[in-house]
Amino acid sequence: MRTFILLALAGLGAQLVDGSLGMAYGVSSTTLLLFVGVAPALASAAVHIAEVGTTAVSGISHASFGNVDWSKIVWMAVPGGIGAFAGAYLLVYASTAEATSGLVEPLVAIILFSLGVYVLSRFAFRRHERPVSVRPVSRKFLSPLGLVAGFLDAFGGGGWGPISTPTLLSSGRMEPRKVIGTVDTSEFVVALCASLGFLFSLSFAEIPWQVVGALFAGGIVAAPIAAWIVKKLPTRILGTAVGGVILLVNMQTFFEAIGLTGVMASIGYVLILGVWIAAIVFAISAIRRDRAIGAEGQPA
Questions:
Q1: CB–CB of 165/23 below 8 Å?
Q2: If DSSP codes are grouped into helix, strand and coil, which group holds residue 192?
Q3: Whole-structure pTM over 0.70, yes or no?
Q4: Coil, helix or strand for 258?
Q5: Which residues contact 211 (CB under 8 A, 6 or more apart)?
Q6: What Cα–Cα distance (Å) separates residue 99 from each residue in 40, 223, 247?
Q7: Transmembrane segments in this chain: where (predicted)?
Q8: Residue of 211, 175, 180 lying closest to 4 (CA atoms)
Q9: For residue 135, what is the DSSP state?
Q10: What is the pLDDT at residue 96?
Q11: Rounded to 5 degrees, what angle do the CA atoms 50, 161, 140 make?
């Protein structure tokens, strides 16, 4: 019972972050399960099966708060589901999965870290330009993004949010709350297809159902709270928060990829954390300034 409660709390925390920032449920949950000794394929299977329920609740919650751009769901979710099914099937059967992951992770971390820097600068430090200019996003862009993110999500235990959210945010064509709500809602299809891939390639008895139940129980509690937070937070704060999380999640792999270790890596961690805090403070002051200017422009 104690293990169930701890896993449920982990699921609650992971879903609260994922539902609020559009990423990190799979990464954080899978990392925890691997740490306690669950095999990679079983850990990813448990997380994705639990996500079928949590993403359904999250999608309904985001939709009720108006956080979803339905015109983009199909063009991301269907390719994402195909990629997720293939990734799940390959993870179970490929004996070189660990070696392949070791080659892919540094490249993905470098790309995402660069996107994190761009997202942070766009939403926190731009003074005289709106961080978002709502415009159409091409289907030719959405579908490959969904396919790659879905595959890496199932194959690596997490990646749908960390890849989709910063990529869409960096385009500057969607409001952060719409990006997060759309990514979280379309993730239902990705989680469902990944789960089918695992169930086809694993026996039903192999799935750690107690882990699935615990993660699901915690996640469904957090999903509506996270959707409400996304609705209420200003665009600048939400974008800045996402940018900082992207940097923090990817900085260890990024530093290893560029050969930064030891004391220099520790200094790098402190600097990134300091920049993120400064960015949030700057974003808050920018919001207050904009509101003050708006108030001055109102007629008496």
A1: yes
A2: helix
A3: yes
A4: coil
A5: 7, 33, 38, 46, 50
A6: 13, 34, 24
A7: 32-52, 73-94, 106-125, 207-230, 237-255, 267-287
A8: 211
A9: -
A10: 42
A11: 120
- Structure tokens given for 222: 């957090």
Q: Report the C-alpha gap between 176 and 236 in whole angstroms.
A: 9
**166 in Cβ contact with 47 (< 8 Å):** no
- For residue 211 the two structure tokens come to 């882990």
Please name the amino acid found at residue 97: A
Q: Torsions phi, psi of 94, nearest 5?
A: -80, 120
Q: What share of the chain is helix, strand, coil (3-state, %, to 5)?
A: 85, 0, 15
Cβ atoms of 228 and 67 closer than 8 Å: no
- As a whole number of angstroms, the distance between CA 286 and CA 131 comes to 12
Token code pair at residue 160: 């749908």
Q: How far is residue 27's CA from residue 162's CA, in Å, rounded to a whole number?
A: 9
- Give the tokens for residue 49: 């099966």
CA distance 113 to 199: 33
What is the DSSP code (8-state) at residue 122? I
- How does pLDDT run across 201-256, given as a tens digit for each residue? 877 777 888 888 888 888 888 888 888 888 887 877 877 887 787 788 778 878 88
- Measured distance CA(256)–CA(113) in Å, rounded: 12
